[in-house]
Amino acid sequence: xxxxxxxxxxxxxxxxxxxxxxxxxxxxxxxxxxxxxxxxxxxxxxxxxxxxxxxxxxxxxxxxxxxxxxxxxxxxxxxxxxxxxxxxxxxxxxxxxxxxxxxxxxxxxxxxxxxxxxxxxxxxxxxxxxxxxxxxxxxxxxxxxxxxxxxxxxxxxxxxxxxxxxxxxxxxxxxxxxxxxxxxxxxxxxxxxxxxxxxxxxxxxxxxxxxxxxxxxxxxxxxxxxxxxxxxxxxxxxxxxxxxxxxx
Length: 248
Fold this sequence. Notes:
By secondary structure, the protein is mainly α. The chain is 71% helix and 4% strand.
């Protein structure tokens, strides 16, 4: 909780009580000064400080939860997490590492992430009217897969110097974020616990994650294999196998 946030809330409480006293003064004029003194004493009391702290904790928790819910609804992030489903459900990869994974994707894609996200959202808008809509329809849609392939091939491009890049990625994943950015000047602290801090990520977890992301490209269906070759100028085996073979 920031000191600035607590001070802002304290000023808000002062303004709120001040507005109330002005409204009440005309009705209880003889007691107006008594009320004003009581309000001042309350604002300076330990009880007021405790209430402000309680409210700030509740507010921070609510904002962090809303951010998490919005992330889960983000079709781009869902798409890039889908290959990791089994690892996440089994606990082989901790879900607490996902914010760092999303940060990595943004480092790779830069401003291009917004364009890919917009395309994912457009696909969802086309699919949602179907009364039998499910997220599997989104994942299985060829245009969706082509967007995922594009991201994966951009990632693969950055891993040409494999060992150096792998070690950098592991170090990145071992760093736990302390806050979620709302804007350039606003951050919401993340609640932490010992289990999150102990979530491992080393060579084993790296190999599991990158196998889950890239190995399926080596067993695409015939039409998908052809679509991949048209998109990137070569079949997935030629472009992906050299990376997958290093994941031992």
